[in-house]
Amino acid sequence: MTETDSVTVTADLAISLDGFIAGTDVTLDNPGGDGAEPLFEWIHNLASWRERQGMSGGEENRDSELMREWFDATGAVVMGRMMYDTGERFWGDNPPFRTPVFVLTHRPRPTLVKEGGTTFTFVTEGIHSALDRAKEAAGDRNVDIAGGAKTVRQYLAEGLIDELQLHVVPALLGDGLRLFGGQGPARRTLEKVRVVDTPLATHLKYRFAASSR
Fold first, then answer.
1. For residue 59, what are the β-bridge partners?
2. Comparison of pLDDT for 86 and 211, the residue scoring more
3. Cβ(98)–Cβ(118) below 8 Å
4. Rounded CA gap, 67 and 64, in Å?
5. Which of 41, 52, 58, 102 has the most beta carbons within 10 angstroms of its beta carbon?
6. Residue 140: is its pLDDT beyond 60?
7. Where are the alpha helices (DSSP H) in the chain?
8. How much is the pTM?
9. Which of 141, 125, 208, 103 lies closest to 3 in space, CA to CA?
10. Residue 186 confidence (pLDDT)
């Protein structure tokens, strides 16, 4: 086993009860889509999230602890070009990742070095290349497949994700961007790691069984 073989690959997303991770009509000016506010508003007052955005204050609770756990455990991030394009203006000069980010794209672009330790490297050689580079950069921490849905589905279909954490928000969006569907016919067996229920969300963490990857 090589050093990078021991790196855990995660996907950690907020999702509505009916399976959506964004609303309808996602655009550069509307990155979350219409009607998606419940998916994201629960994190805005968490102390760990505010700290990551360079702000003070906020609630120190179980939700904040779980968010901080993700920040501390993640050593590199992979995302799709659409997620990058819709987030670029919002993240600004000091993005919250504080780690190397590898962006899947068909449009090459020079690496961007931002404040706080975030770099954006644009990878044109596909999902395996992006993941290999992220593992090299992550050191002894995790690689997170941040999104969007198409990117997560690609990695799921290839059996490349080790752990899946879903923050299930008590809301029905009715329409929008679904996370699951189109992963192919292969059955995936999950082992429950934990379930944490709070007034804001139900946090479900699973590990893929070794035989299903």
1. 46
2. 86
3. yes
4. 5
5. 102
6. yes
7. 37-41, 47-52, 62-73, 81-91, 127-138, 149-157
8. 0.92
9. 141
10. 62
Residue closest to 170 by CA, chosen among 204, 203, 200, 197: 200
Give one DSSP letter per residue of 158-170, joined into a string. Answer: TT---EEEEEEES
The single-letter code of the amino acid at 80 is G
d(CA 80, CA 151): 6
CA quadruple 21, 55, 63, 154: dihedral, nearest 10: 30
Torsion angles phi and psi, residue 146, rounded to 5? -80, -25
Residue 6's CB: how many other CB atoms inside 10 A?
A: 9
Q: Which residues contact 30 (CB under 8 A, 6 or more apart)?
A: none
Token output for 15 = 């999702």
pLDDT digits (tens, 9 = 90+) for 88-97: 998 999 999 9
Name the token pair of 83. 């997620």
